[in-house]
Amino acid sequence: MTTTGQGGRGFAAASPGTHPGMDEQDILQRIHSLVDEEHALRESSEHTDETRARMSRLEADLDQCWDLLRQRRAKRQYDEDPDEAEVRPEQQVENYLQ
Question: What residue spans define the domains of the chain?
Fold first, then answer.
C-alpha cells in the first residue's frame, strides 16, 4: 500500500493509499486527503520542481480515485460486485473527457 504525504508515490500497484476491500467511504476519504494536500501545495509560496511534480502526481491519483469510485457505483447500480472494480492505468484515466 502507498502512503500519503509530501513525496508520496501515488497509485503504485493498487491505488494511492487504497487496498482491496476499500468501500466508497474509504475512497472518498482518500480523495479528500489528496485534495487537502493539493490545496496546501497550491497555497504555499514555494513552487519548486518537486512541488510541481507532487501536484501533478496528486492530480493523477485523484483522477484514478474518482474513476475507481465511479466504477464501484456503476457496478452496484447494475447489480454487480463493486469489489471487482479495479484501478485503471494512469494513462487511461488521464485521457477521459470530463
Answer: 24-94
